[in-house]
């Protein structure tokens, strides 16, 4: 296995899932979901944090409320959408309105640790949606 460390972060070199996804069998895709779920379950058993955001990152973003963290992500997305001029950024305004209606719910969300990159990089979402559509 080809591994390197950069600024205290371990990297395993290989191909991005998106590059090999179409070559994977349904069983391999399901196994990826199972393994990622197991990993996230282990990580979520770590002590609850005092804030929402990143623990080890150049981003240095932390928030005392989940809703504030989500709104920050939405603003970042809106800026990126505008810069790329691919989509209409008004969708982000709709997301903000929806988040505002759910603010009481978001107050109940605990800052449970999770691994951002393996969860939010379309790994689970893309695979699950594909199987739902079939």
Total number of helices: 7
- Which descriptor suits the 3D outline? globular
CA radius of gyration is 17 Å
| Main sheet attributes: strand count, strand direction, barrel closure | 2 strands, antiparallel
Distance between the termini: 35 Å
- What is the total number of structural domains? 2
Structural class: mainly alpha
- The low-pLDDT segments are 124-134
Count the beta strands: 4
Q: What share of the residues lie within helices? A: 55-70%
Relative strand content: 5-15%
Output the strand order for the largest sheet: 1-2
Average pLDDT level:
78
Order of helices and strands: EEHHEEHHHHH
Structural overview:
The chain is mainly alpha-helical and 134 residues long. It folds into two domains: 18-46 and 114-134; 65-112. It is 55% helix and 9% strand. It has seven helices and four strands, in the order ββααββααααα. The strands form two sheets. It has a two-stranded antiparallel ribbon with strand order 1-2. A hairpin with an 8-residue loop joins β3 and β4 (62-63). α3 (66-84) packs antiparallel against α4. It is globular, with a radius of gyration of 17 Å. Residues 124-134 have low confidence and may be disordered.
């Amino acid at each position: 296995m080809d591994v390197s460390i950069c600024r205290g972060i371990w990297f395993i070199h290989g191909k991005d899932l998106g590059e090999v996804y179409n070559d994977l069998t349904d069983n391999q895709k399901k196994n990826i979901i199972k393994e990622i779920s197991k990993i996230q379950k282990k990580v979520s058993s770590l002590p609850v944090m005092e804030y929402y955001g990143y623990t080890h990152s150049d981003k240095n973003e932390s928030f005392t409320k989940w809703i504030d963290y989500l709104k920050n992500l939405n603003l970042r997305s809106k800026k990126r959408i505008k810069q790329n001029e691919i989509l209409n950024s008004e969708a982000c305004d709709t997301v903000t309105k929806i988040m505002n209606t759910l603010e009481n719910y978001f107050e109940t969300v605990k800052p449970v640790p999770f691994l951002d990159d393996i969860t939010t990089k379309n790994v689970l979402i893309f695979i699950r949606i594909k199987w739902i559509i079939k």
